[in-house]
Amino acid sequence: MISWFLHLPFLVVGILVAIGLYTVLFKNNLIKIIMGIAIIQNGVNLFLISLAYRKDGVAPIWTSAPDEFMVMPTPHALTLTSIVIGLATTALLLSFVMMIKRHYGTIDADKVRRCRE
Amino acid sequence: MRKSVAALAFLIVFAFLLLGMSQLRPFGEPENTEMDDYFLYDQEEGSQAHNQVNNIVTAILFDYRGLDTLGEATVLFSAVSGVVTVLRKVKKSGKEVQG
Amino acid sequence: MNWKMSRVVRTIADIMVVPIIIFGIYLIIHGHLSPGGGFQGGAVIASSTALLIIAYGSFGKHKDSLSSLESTGLTLFILIAFLGLGYTVFYNFLASGGAVFGGTVPYGINPGRLDSGGTVPLMNIMVGLEVTAALSLILWMMAKGSDSMDVEEASV
Asked: Across the A/C interface, how many CB contacts are shorter than 8 Å?
């Protein structure tokens, strides 16, 4: 097995996704579930950025660049897309939670389910 | 019962995450970088020659992968439409209130 | 909702809104030269909206103006994309043409030139408009929508 220290960013990605998954699975508060989804999103973004890194590369911007060897730009562009889409979905989820609070009077997932039955 | 099923699923997914992490290439040494080198360094068709743009990420975002950005802007527009629709004010009689 | 914070907070918000908006416009306009761009600059400008909502409360009616600004940004973005249809969609027909943003940059490390990039800076400005309006509208609708909420103890 390869030394885990070389994989430190990927290990951080795994821990972030695990924390988000734990929050989604084991919490009942809807706001906390949305926080878990946001943590998973950030973990995936960090994974894309880590894949783009080349050793001793600088940011892919030619304006007064310190070096000519640069990291790969395409995952950065796609991560930018992913960040904005994550923001949009988070806003939509939060407004759904506001709607649930207005209708049922609670944001506990179990209590909302009991109200529906 | 539900908690234990959730714990089992969580453990399985976490094990898959660790397994996949150990199978990746080492950090900082990617392979197959021809496309990114084309964007960065090509002197006839690259970002600086073709678009006259210094910021390669912006060049990719708005020129090479512009359709992707168009879809992203559309998703943002739809999300805002959804937020406005969900949070609009409704009176008891069901009639919509202006503003 | 009509809350209003103290005079100190309101004065500081009034002062801070101007540099925040100027910094956001700088990020949008220099998007093809430095880190930043339409999305980031739009988010920075929308943060000034958040500051104003915190200080003054969500007063007034801005839904129609903000949504028309957002639609304008998206429509102009698609229009610029389709103007290059002589070759392909999203063709950069303005680059090195000598017209608006038509300057050229040399290959390699250079100090940068604002008058370059073709359609990329124009698209940055349009996307900046759209993101500014979209995030401001989300923040404003949420502040307005929290009107009829009563505070309850959050359950774990």
From this structure: 53
Contact with chain C for residue B90, Cβ under 8 A: no
Is A61 within the bounds of a domain? no
pTM (two decimals): 0.87
Segments of A50-106 assigned E as strands? none
Distance CA C132, CA A4 (A): 42
pLDDT at C9 over 80: yes
Strands (E), C94-145: none
Whether residue A25 lies inside any domain: the answer is yes
Q: What is the pLDDT of residues C109-151, one digit of tens each?
A: 888 888 888 889 999 999 999 999 999 999 998 888 876 554 4
Task: Look at A103-107, B82-86, C51-55 and tell me which has the smallest mean pLDDT.
Answer: A103-107
DSSP SS3 for A66 = coil
CB atoms inside a 10 Å sphere around CB B45: 10
Instruction: Write down how long chain B is.
Output: 99
Asked if C111 and A63 count as a contact pair (C-beta separation under 8 A), the reply is: yes
Q: Which of B53, B57, B73 sits opposite C77 (nearest CB)?
A: B73
* Total domains, chain A: 1
Which residues on chain A are in Cβ contact (under 8 Å) with B24? 7, 10
| Domain limits for position A32 | 9-55+71-116
Q: Where are the beta strands (DSSP E) in chain C?
A: none
CATH number of A30's domain: 1.10.287.3510
CA angle B63, B65, B66 (to 5 degrees): 60
Instruction: Give yes or no for residue C24 having a pLDDT over 80.
Output: yes
Which residues from B are below 8 Å from A18, CB to CB?
10, 13-14, 17
